[in-house]
Design brief:
Structural class: alpha+beta
Number of strands: 19
Mean pLDDT: 82
Distance between the termini: 25 Å
Largest sheet: 6 strands, antiparallel
């Protein structure tokens, strides 16, 4: 939640404190607990502090380290402190930044691979005029940059980098098409032309004359778990999840948990070693009973004896301003969660109850989309009995006309589920011709070995899709005053699950088999066996109904969205929305994307009008 800003004068000019200040001022919401900067012979480092770790272990910002005079900046959280201290020698009351620096002195750039957690690492050597920056393996701590022959500017948010540049912002068409097509990013672009994202699992070295970016982590497959007894796999999974939860409960304040009746959040709650510090927060929907999970929640809360706060979600519909822009839109990009208001209300309630962080089950769904070549895995390991059982279950579902029957058979035939195509064979009807021709061929992530790049769901699980959306979530959380932490983003847990053959975590027609079976007998039976069917789409539908005139005005006219989206398709979706009744269904994602894109482009245009702040 804290943020960094870096300005390196590659042309030999003195440190530029003014540009650093512009960069930091664009991220003031990330500096609730203060800010600090340091200059040294051509490079300025800035840090905006959002306290969430124990006070004696929290980071303090840029510092000069040792006799070498190097400047060091660490932002984030180390989750394997005990492992590193065992290798380096334990020190009492050691901050994460101090531990990271000791590791760098011993291992050099190899320390980036050894660090587990979320972090951005920066080292400036004023003597050699070399700047080194690094980003964690899964990319949970973002870092954006702009590079030219005169300057290197980097920050935790893309808008902060753009604001510090000398040019007006130009939207990046390729990134926008990626966003509209809802696919994995083909490059490390941001929504601003000329502003790039340092890839996760990479470090870079910048000098006056050169720039190089190197990979320090890659997912490595291991087939050893295929022959391991199922009970041992389940035990190992529970231990990995317990370890991930413990690492995210490292704070000297209360810890919240966003608790629903689903498997992801309840498995996190049951993995906590110290439930007395947990404060559970849940939504109740008394008017929309299909989305309410009150009975399941009360079972968990009673069994764990949690302090529980219920919030009414019926009135937390998606809100729009007078100009038709959805609440939550900011200058970093057009990503907005349709339930932004719902989440923010919960986070603010947690902050009011003195929680510095809140646990959530985010990314669990994506993680379980890891390897979806079912027939291949089942035949590869000669699981003939499992093949027969899975076909029988799928056919039974199909005969009973249950949803998922055909899907299960398709999975067994080798199709990928949840892994969207990188590049469609034909232009989607809602995409404009100009945008279609800018869509590049997919470039597989270097985080995934070549023999697995065809399984594009690996990229999804590891985190290549997350960066832009994660920036929106981080900024929103900072404004609400609480840090969101997801145990299912722990690198050790991610690597473990992705090592497993397919049948361990989805076995048609059952999903999330791993967590269901591993927690069978621990979680309430009603949760292990239930299948969530409720939807929160009614919140967006109600918000759009109330803001109908403003939304129509936003999309009608000579607007910028026409450069990217097919006018006929958007106007058709808008017409259906206009003619819908009081209880109309939520419009498809095409119209929502058009609203978000136009809102962001309008905000950028307003920002650069003469006399605007």
């Amino acid at each position: 939640m804290s943020a960094v800003a870096i300005v390196f004068q590659r042309n030999g000019a003195p440190s530029d404190q003014a540009t650093l200040s512009v960069c930091m001022n664009a991220m003031l919401h990330r500096g609730r607990d203060g800010q600090r900067s340091q200059e040294s012979r051509g490079c300025a480092l800035g840090y905006l502090h959002f306290a969430s770790l124990p006070a004696v272990e929290d980071n303090t910002g840029p510092r000069k380290c040792g006799e070498s005079g190097q400047n060091f900046l660490f932002c984030g959280r180390i989750d394997n402190r005990h492992e590193l201290q065992s290798a380096l020698g334990k020190k009492t009351r050691e901050r994460d930044e101090e531990l990271a620096w000791r590791g760098y002195l011993v291992w050099g750039t190899e320390v980036f691979r050894r660090l587990i957690g979320k972090f951005v690492f920066a080292i400036w050597n004023p003597e050699s005029q070399v700047l080194i920056v690094a980003r964690d393996a899964l990319g949970d701590e973002p870092l954006y940059y702009a590079l030219d022959r005169d300057r290197f500017i980097a920050a935790s948010e893309p808008w902060a980098v753009q604001a510090a540049r000398d040019t007006a912002p130009r939207p990046d068409s390729e990134k926008i098409v990626d966003f509209l097509h809802n696919r994995w990013p083909a490059t490390n672009r941001s929504f601003f032309e000329g502003v790039m994202e340092l890839p996760q699992g990479h470090w870079a070295r910048a000098t006056r004359a050169s720039w190089e970016c190197r990979q320090f982590w890659q997912f490595t497959p291991d087939d050893s778990w295929a022959s391991t007894p199922t009970s041992e796999v389940h035990e190992a999974f529970r231990e990995k999840l317990r370890q991930a939860v413990a690492a995210r409960m490292r704070t000297d304040r209360s810890v919240g948990i966003s608790l629903s009746g689903g498997l992801d959040s309840t498995s996190i709650a049951f993995s906590a070693d110290d439930c007395e510090r947990l404060r559970a927060f849940s939504w109740r929907f008394m008017e929309n009973r299909s989305a309410d999970e009150g009975m399941l929640l009360h079972t968990v809360v009673s069994q764990l004896d949690l302090l529980h706060t219920e919030l009414s979600g019926d009135d937390c519909y998606t809100r729009f301003n007078a100009g038709g822009a959805p609440e939550g839109i900011d200058l970093n990009g057009p990503h907005v969660n349709t339930v932004h208001g719902l989440k923010q209300a919960l986070y603010r309630q947690a902050a009011d109850m003195d929680c510095s962080s809140i646990l959530c089950g985010d990314s669990a769904d994506e993680l379980y989309l890891g390897r979806y070549y079912w027939l291949r895995d089942l035949t590869r390991y000669r699981q003939h009995g499992r093949i027969k059982d899975a076909f029988s279950l799928s056919l039974a579902d199909l005969i009973k006309c249950r949803e998922g029957g055909w899907l299960s058979l398709r999975l067994l035939a080798g199709n990928r589920f949840g892994a969207r195509r990188y590049l469609p064979e034909r232009k989607p009807p809602w995409l404009s011709e100009a945008a279609w021709h800018t869509l590049p061929a997919y470039q597989a992530s270097s985080l995934v070995p070549e023999d697995l790049q065809a399984e594009n769901s690996y990229d999804f699980a590891i985190g290549c899709y997350r960066s832009s959306y994660a920036n929106y979530e981080l900024a929103a959380n900072a404004r609400s005053g609480v840090e969101r932490r997801s145990p299912y983003r722990d690198r050790r847990l991610v690597e473990f699950i992705l090592q497993l053959p397919a049948w361990f975590y989805r076995y048609p027609p059952r999903n999330k088999v791993l967590v269901r079976d591993a927690f069978n007998g621990l979680l309430p039976e009603s949760i292990v066996k239930q299948s969530k069917s409720g939807s929160l789409a009614f919140l967006l539908a109600e918000g759009l109904r109330r803001a109908k005139p403003a939304v129509e005005a936003l999309l009608v006219g000579d607007n910028a969205w026409r450069e990217y989206l097919d006018e006929r398709e958007i106007l058709r979706a808008l017409h259906q929305f206009q003619n819908a009744g009081q209880n109309h269904r939520v419009p498809d994602g095409v119209l929502w994307n058009a609203i978000c894109l136009q809102s962001w482009l309008t905000a950028l245009d307003y920002r650069y009008r003469p006399g605007s702040p």
